[in-house]
Specification:
With 285 residues, the protein is of the alpha/beta class. It has helices at 19-22, 68-75, 118-128, 134-146, 162-174, 192-209, 220-226, 254-257, 260-284, and strands at residues 27-37, 43-53, 57-61, 83-88, 103-106, 180-184, 212-217, 229-234, 239-245. Helix 3 (118-128) crosses helix 4 and helix 3 packs parallel to helix 5 (162-174).
Length: 285
């Protein structure tokens, strides 16, 4: 995938924050003692503490009902906490949208407007911001180019494959030029080949643009392949039980997927996930 205008001048300028440097990196998101209890008494989250540092790619992994999507939505400002707090760039939510501080959310399903062409779907966030004119059209062109859909702007969603529809959904998120990208299991419904290709594409975009990404997934393999850190969660109540650093260099590719290191990380994460699942079962008895 070609990324216009994003190829850096030097190798150092694209360096993703390493595990050694990460301790001193500025936090983009700080969740402290976050509880979320629904009106019916369901405890979706209990005591969640999590820092997301600038430049990280963090995956939230856990069984169904562990609060992954709930925590992601709270991070996006799409839901309130019952108790606890969430800070964005060490401040409250109203700083999001300031220069250099924009977040975008990619949902599990593409959720495209079927009556609008791809270009119109990508334009939607700009319309909501009342952004128009030549600069707006340039943003749309760039977003479509970033996800490889430059030739499909005049197509309707029904004319696209599932993978292409998700690309359009990602372009719609990117058109606002965010630096924090929150993704709620966006590739879960896709076949393995398409999923692997989109994994590679999102990593390429992440590295080239210096984003911070929080990514929800049910897949151990996807979490290990994509992430600089995997956060494992348990259910009933939803809580964070372990954080595993994936200390492998980027860019990653097919050779990493078949490496001994990849297999070892998958084993470690799988064991943590199994433990988390058992904790949830014990709580429900």
């Amino acid at each position: 995938m070609t990324i216009p205008g994003s190829v850096p001048d030097t190798e150092d300028s694209t360096a993703v924050i390493s595990s050694a440097e990460n301790a001193s990196a500025r936090p983009v998101i700080q969740a402290r003692s976050v509880d979320k209890v629904y009106a019916n008494g369901t405890i979706a989250l209990k005591g969640a503490d999590l820092d997301i540092k600038q430049g990280e790619f963090v995956s939230l992994l856990g069984p169904s009902g562990c609060g992954k999507s709930t925590l992601l939505r709270i991070m996006a400002g799409l839901g309130d906490v019952t108790t606890g707090s969430v800070k964005w760039w060490e401040q409250d939510y109203d700083v999001v949208g300031d220069k250099g501080r924009k977040l975008a959310f990619v949902f599990q399903n593409a959720t495209l407007m079927p009556w609008a062409k791809v270009r119109g779907n990508v334009r939607l966030p700009l319309d909501l911001e009342k952004d128009s004119g030549p600069a707006c059209e340039q943003k749309i062109d760039q977003a479509l180019n970033m996800v490889g859909l430059s030739n499909f702007g005049e197509s309707y969603p029904r004319e696209l494959s599932g993978g292409m529809q998700m690309r359009a959904s990602i372009a719609r998120a990117l058109v606002t030029e965010p630096n924090l990208l929150l993704m709620d299991e966006p590739f879960g419904a896709l076949d393995e080949m398409t999923r692997n290709k989109l994994n590679d594409d999102i990593l390429e975009l992440w590295q080239a643009n210096g984003w911070t990404i929080v990514f929800v997934t049910h897949s151990v393999y996807e979490a290990v392949y994509l992430s600089s850190r995997v956060v494992v969660m348990a259910a009933r109540p939803g809580r964070i039980v372990e954080e595993i650093t994936i200390d492998e260099p980027f860019p990653r590719g097919p050779e990493f997927r078949v490496s001994q290191n990849f297999a070892e990380y998958c084993r470690r994460v799988s064991e943590s996930l199994e433990k988390a699942s058992t904790m949830g079962q014990e709580q429900s008895q």
